[in-house]
UniProtKB/TrEMBL annotation:
It holds the Pfam family DUF6461. It comes from Micromonospora cremea. InterPro entries: DUF6461. This is Uncharacterized protein.
Amino acid sequence: MADDDVAWYQRLLEVKPELIDEVPCWTVIQPLTKPVTVAEVVRRLGGDPAEIEHRTGWDPDAPTSVVHLNQVGPAVVMAEVMDAEGIREEVLRWLSDGAVVHSSWWGSGNGRSFLCYAAFGRLMTQLQHLDDDRPGGEQPEALDEDRAALRGLTDDPDLDYPAQLALVERRTGVRLDAAWLDQPHPTVVLRKPIPDDPRPPGSFAATDTDLAAMLLMADEPTHRAALRWVLDLLADEQDLRGEPLVNAVLDTLTHDWPASKDLGQESHAMNIRLSEEVNNSPGMSPERWRRYYRMRAGQAFAATVIDPNDRSKPLDTLWYAQQALQERWPAIRAELWRRARHQRSTL
């Protein structure tokens, strides 16, 4: 039963809470037309099987290119500490050559997650969470039947991650048991990881490439003014005018991009405070949803603050704004597109 599967992973995470923060990516590779071994997985990841070591446990301070592997019958399980090779589309294509791959990534710090399914070198389905109503991939609905019984369980936020891991087990028949990490197991450092494909910058550009392109084609004042217009709406709607970061971002956007060297501390403090408000509210209550949307609005402001050494435009501000504005987003998106397109047409 799905409930039993979820309960098993809930108990596992209670016993080993460090798995939530330190081993966020689990991947199961199963053979279809070609054998799958630990050495073969290392080769497909761009590593050297001659460099495989046998280690006990894992080091959260180790390089992010470390992968931990376990042969489970004909399948290989891969665990990553503070990394996510297993959900990268490039990696999924290589790993799923003659094989099927299911992977789960969990971002405990920002509440984001990914579930991926690939087969024969193709990304079939990609979910950003179990309740994702806009899945990606060549066959977005492929996981719908298996996740249907689990989606209702995510009404309890404490079950989100256990339910996600349970879905991987339902699809693969392989139970993700962390006990092997504490025993000698194959481990390898990927010194030449598979390079990224060309891709849009950030989550928003990946989900709304058209609007992202329009904004980036506009001049910088137009782009900043468009973001400021959305953030003004969020500040009023979510009662954020009293937040120092909010006022600083709105003031700075009139003439420049807010820089993390000035606002990083305020951004971090606000994110923690708004997240705690969500966590301290009753599960799935109207109050919790209100605080969740307020947290997403706050994250939109935080996403606008950029590294002064990286002047890329913070399009993910709009990803968080979309989460906060919900049903109002289509009209707001249309206005953003109009503003960007109007500026471009007058050049």
